[in-house]
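Please fill in the sequence for the structure shown.

STRUCTURE ENCODING:
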């Protein structure tokens, strides 16, 4: 996945190139349209004017690991361009490893919650489990976006039960 950014400095161009890649994962769009019309008349002559303007703003909140800036170039007119590259296979491996680690930890935490003595011990473990459930969703969404087949990694069958038990413990 590539992104290209342009600005007057290398750092700003690189940041814009990274943001182009991040937009593929999470994009917030805000659009405002304005139009106005005016007609004037002074007896024999009349005039009409119309103004239309659009303001579109985009932003992203996603930070991507593994984005590299392998090339910069200068057009000789004060514009510097940066090429950002995200290696799809490498990123998929990293995300899969993170998801697998989380999924393995679910069963362990679930057992620890059942065997914990005291409300505070159960609460602490339940909150960890809920945090894993919450953290898993955006990672899996990124995996789905990067995966050429468009598929994520299904959560373990016991995750929804474990999250339900954790909510009860909280």
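FILLED IN BY: designer on duty
SEQUENCE:
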């Amino acid at each position: 996945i590539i992104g290209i950014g342009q600005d007057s400095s290398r750092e700003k161009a690189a940041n814009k190139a990274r943001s182009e890649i991040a937009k593929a994962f999470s994009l917030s769009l805000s659009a405002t349209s304005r139009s106005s019309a005016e007609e004037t008349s002074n007896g024999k002559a009349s005039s009409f004017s119309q103004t239309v303007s659009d303001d579109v703003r985009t932003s992203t909140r996603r930070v991507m690991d593994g984005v590299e800036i392998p090339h910069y170039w200068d057009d000789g007119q004060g514009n510097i361009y940066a090429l950002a590259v995200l290696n799809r296979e490498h990123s998929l491996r990293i995300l899969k490893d993170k998801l697998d680690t989380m999924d393995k930890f679910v069963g362990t935490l679930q057992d620890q919650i059942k065997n914990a003595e005291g409300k505070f011990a159960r609460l602490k473990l339940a909150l960890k489990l809920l945090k894993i459930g919450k953290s898993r969703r955006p990672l899996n969404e990124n995996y789905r976006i990067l995966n050429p087949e468009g598929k994520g990694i299904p959560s373990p069958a016991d995750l929804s039960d474990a999250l339900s038990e954790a909510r009860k413990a909280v």
